[in-house]
Design brief:
The complex is a heterodimer. By secondary structure, chain A is of the alpha+beta class. Chain A has two domains: 124 residues, 2-Layer Sandwich (Ribosomal Protein S5, domain 2), CATH 3.30.230.20; 119 residues, lpxc deacetylase, domain 1 (2-Layer Sandwich). Chain A is built from seven helices and 17 strands. In chain A, helix 1 packs across helix 6 and helix 6 runs parallel beside helix 7. The longest helix of chain A is centred in the C-terminal third of the chain and has 18 residues. The radius of gyration of chain A is 17 Å and the shape is globular. Chain B is α/β, with parallel strands linked by helices. In chain B, the strands form four sheets. Chain B has a six-stranded mixed sheet. A four-stranded antiparallel sheet of chain B has the order 10-11-9-12, with helices on one face. In chain B, a hairpin with a 2-residue loop joins strand 4 and strand 5. In chain B, helix 1 crosses helix 3. The chains are: A alpha+beta, B alpha/beta.
């Protein structure tokens, strides 16, 4: 099977996704990697080589839910919105508003999923070597607990997520198909609890965060993930990815 | 660095409500540690300058702290005596615990430790303890003689908890105080509809003020929900527009008022001037009998993210706490502008222990872990590259 990228440039109000020239995903010129994460409590920020990107988990979740493996994501926002802490931070560091890649609505997608579906994805001609976690990792912190285990080629990211008192969500993120369309749309539109408080929507937003972190930042195609969370998902997922490492997945 | 030293000094500073006694406590502590001290006076109030000579000829590092605190208000609103400085578990309580004296104790102990261990700091270190931090830091005007330095304003930015990481404030918001005057027409109170009672316009004006600033789009503050659930890291530098006073002109009290004044405190983000806010406010209000006066204005201070002190703080904080700091604005114009204007600093950054949300409120407290974290960071910053 071949790696997938977007057919053409995909544009939303805040970013552009360009067909990749190489493999992997870059965010504002930063190669996506757990090693580049500089903040993972409220959101996931990355920094490398003088570049910085805020709220990385949202575009990464949108790409992975659509089955995109390779892409260049570039922020295009020009206006500041200083009610947003990410904007204040970016301004403090002498950056431009385009450093912030998450939509101001606090939704996962901010129109990106819909835009990718409209433009479509294509195979790049490069054979994909599927990945999984290098070892089983299990740990807990004040925000919840996580177990992540290796899984064979073609099985996808098998997710069990329970957020607070809400019903657990069980699903599979396909390596090529992403998330099944109905759930994809539900996750794409889910708002962060920071702006709306805790509702059932929080669980779906958290699923998006998990996908952005483990499949996106961690680069894990196949694996079993079980998470019970009542606080910040990113402290669990990013730490798990760092602890577990990533390796080539085995055939069945 | 011993926790009990920080607690003991912070307690003794908190227990002295007035500036003179607080200064005495600080001087006593620093003298015992053989730290060079100078005391000058500003409007009959003490200004304490402590100094440790550096091993290299570099621009000095200046810690800006203050000896005064916000008034505690009626004691019956406190659940403990405001100047008790009592410890409960890991919490140090009292007026100034989070804003002023806790941070001052963290710096003083860091400096004392360094000196008593016979370690020379990398560069000259000054600790300024000013009598008027709550009133604009004007006493900085009497300070001179050490050339331009890198200033660290000690103020609450950082609390270590499961929902927080250290925050470094490179910039400081500006502030403007505006006065909205609404004129009315007399009428007999029993037949008020024949006049034009400006008091009745206050709810509409307050409501417009609450809505016009973008903050409220994201963080609606609801009556009786004092936003305890909102995280300091999200709130610290957010722009705000807050009514802070109302005056009613009606000396005779036999007719409806002739004029109402509402004072509004606005924080100014970059590229916002008091005039722009006043114009925006004017057009939103749309009242023909209203005027808006600008009482005072301090513009936004844009710090230098590439300053050595910022880079060094990032490294030290990561090392001490395991977290990269978040970057924010400081939520009011502390001493940054004045330090620059008076030629005392080439760069200014704000970082200190405690949760800013607790400032000025009753039952003020600070977590001792935060004081210790800050004290370790300050010491490392003073020490600079490892002493050989």
């Amino acid at each position: 099977m071949y790696r997938q990228t977007v057919k053409n440039i995909v544009k939303t109000d805040i970013l552009e996704v360009r067909p990749a020239r190489g493999t992997g995903i870059t965010l504002n010129n930063i190669p996506v990697s757990p090693a580049h994460v500089v903040h993972n409590l409220f959101r996931v920020d990355m920094a490398a080589n003088g570049y910085r990107a805020y709220i990385c988990e949202h575009p990464l979740a949108s790409l992975k839910m659509c089955g995109v493996h390779d892409a260049e994501v570039v922020g295009i926002r020009k206006e500041w919105d200083f009610a947003r802490p990410e904007d204040r931070s970016a301004y403090s560091l002498g950056l431009k508003p385009n450093a912030v890649l998450g939509p101001p609505t606090g939704r996962i997608s901010g129109g990106l999923v819909e835009a990718i579906e409209k433009v479509g994805i294509k195979r790049s001609g490069i054979v994909k070597e599927e990945t999984t976690v290098a070892k089983k990792v299990e740990f807990s912190n004040p925000h919840g607990k996580i177990i992540i285990e290796p899984a064979p080629v073609g099985t996808g990211l098998q997710i069990y997520l329970k957020f607070g008192q809400f019903d657990p969500i069980e699903t599979v993120l396909g390596v090529y198909s992403g998330l099944e369309p109905k759930l994809r749309r539900k996750v794409a539109g889910a708002i962060t609890p920071f702006l709306k408080g805790l509702t059932e929507e929080t669980a779906y937003h958290t699923l998006g965060d998990l996908i952005g972190d483990i499949a996106g930042t961690g680069g894990v195609d196949n694996g079993y993930v079980k998470v019970e969370v009542w606080g910040s998902i990113h402290t669990l997922t990013i730490t798990a990815c760092k602890k577990a490492g990533v390796t080539r997945a085995r055939e069945h | 660095m011993r926790e009990e030293d920080v607690i003991k000094l912070a307690q003794s500073l908190i227990s002295t409500p007035n500036v003179e006694d607080t200064a005495k406590q600080l001087v006593q502590f620093l003298e015992k540690k053989n730290i060079y001290l100078e005391e000058i006076s500003y409007e009959d109030n003490p200004v304490i300058i402590a100094k440790a000579e550096g091993r290299e000829k570099k621009n000095p590092l200046i810690f800006v702290t203050h000896l005064d605190v916000a008034p505690p208000g009626p004691e019956e609103f406190w659940s403990f005596p405001p100047f008790s400085g009592q410890i409960e578990g890991n919490v140090l309580k009292g007026r100034g615990a989070v804003k002023g004296k806790g941070g001052l104790a963290s710096v003083a102990v860091a400096l004392a430790d360094l000196v008593s261990e016979g370690i020379k700091p990398e560069r000259d270190v000054f600790l300024l303890a000013l009598p008027d931090g709550e009133r604009g830091y004007r006493s900085l005007e009497v300070i001179s003689g050490f050339g331009k330095g890198s200033a660290l304003i000690v103020a609450p930015t950082s609390t270590m908890s499961e929902w927080s990481v250290p925050l470094v404030c490179i910039s400081q918001v500006g502030r403007a105080n505006l006065r909205v005057k609404i004129r009315g027409r007399y009428a007999h109170p029993s037949l008020s509809w024949y006049g034009d009672n400006p008091l009745l316009k206050i709810p509409k004006i307050i409501s417009i003020l609450q809505e016009m600033w973008p903050t409220h789009k994201y963080y609606p503050t609801r009556p009786k929900e004092a936003a305890e659930d909102l995280l300091t890291a999200f709130l610290l530098g957010m722009p705000t527009l807050t009514p802070i006073g109302v005056r009613i002109k009606n000396e005779a009290r036999i007719h409806t008022p002739v004029e109402v004044e509402i004072d509004v405190c606005v924080t100014l983000p970059p590229n916002y001037s008091a005039e722009k806010v006043a114009n925006d406010l004017n057009s939103k209000l749309g009242l023909k009998d209203a005027t808006i006066e600008i009482l005072d204005e301090i513009p936004f201070f844009t710090g230098n993210p590439n300053a050595w002190i910022v880079k060094e703080l990032e490294k030290i904080i990561l090392d001490v706490t395991g977290y990269f700091p978040l970057y924010e604005w400081f939520p009011y114009p502390a001493a940054a502008h004045l330090m620059m204007k008076l030629g005392l600093a080439t760069e200014v950054v704000t970082f200190g222990p405690g949760d800013f949300k607790l400032s000025y409120r009753t039952d003020e407290w600070v977590n001792v872990n935060d004081l210790m974290m800050a004290s370790k960071v300050y010491r490392r910053l003073m020490e600079g590259r490892k002493h050989v």
